[in-house]
Amino acid sequence: xxxxxxxxxxxxxxPEKALSTVNANKNELASAPEMTLEQIMAGxxxxxxxxxxxxxxxxxxxxxxxxxxxxELNASKPAYIKEAKVGQFLDTSTGELxxxxxxxxxxxxxxxxxxxxxxxxxxxxxxxGVEQGLARNEKNQFVRPGGPEANxxxxxxxxxxxxxxxxxxxxxxxxxLKSADIKTxxxxxxxxxxxxxxxxxxxxVPLPIFIHVCKLxxxxxxxxxxxxxxxxxxxxxxxxxDEMAVLSKAQEARTTFQxxxxxxxxxxxxxxxxxxxx
Length: 278
Fold this sequence. Notes:
Radius of gyration: 26 Å
Number of strands: 13
Order of helices and strands: HHEEEEEEEEEHEEEEH
Largest sheet: 8 strands, antiparallel
Structural class: alpha+beta
């Protein structure tokens, strides 16, 4: 029996122009000066490896109040935090726990957030008004046509801002108020709108939202058989002339949030008290 010999095809020749391009790129990379650790830590490196990323590539830095049904309080859940207590604030991106929060709101954005039925996941965020003409279900939520499996739309008021951490650092956070906390969102906005100053034309105009330093606490609430911790907001003071660095960061954060808010993907959380129960 004869053994067939395998004939090897010669490798395709790479065009000289392509080789010269590759070599030029290699030379360009090789000629780029290496930076010292001191230069890198001083922020002098322009290419950091985060090029091409967007807000959808990162965890939404949500600030929330832990409720009795929160997974962070359930030892059988992956999100369990041993030190956590009901009624505390949690920064979901850093894991920091707080009993109260100093918060500077930088941007307010109301949205109608659409979810799949039965906690099926996030669908889309819409501008207010998209719910016009939609029916409500037994939980007083807006629902798309389609029966029990239809998507629901939840009125959600987002406050994007800066939180002062335990180390004194200003950290970006997002607060999502919905259901029972919509009243708090409206009162918060009304209180800030009432803070006015006189401009050069002698007109009384509202102070910008990012000038306010607010204190956030959680207040225990009960109604019927339901109990939960609700948001409580106090306007403590305004940023003063000795805090120009804080003012600069607040304005910078506002610009950042304006550019990225539309791409933020919310995280579905446990619903503690439904609208229909209040």
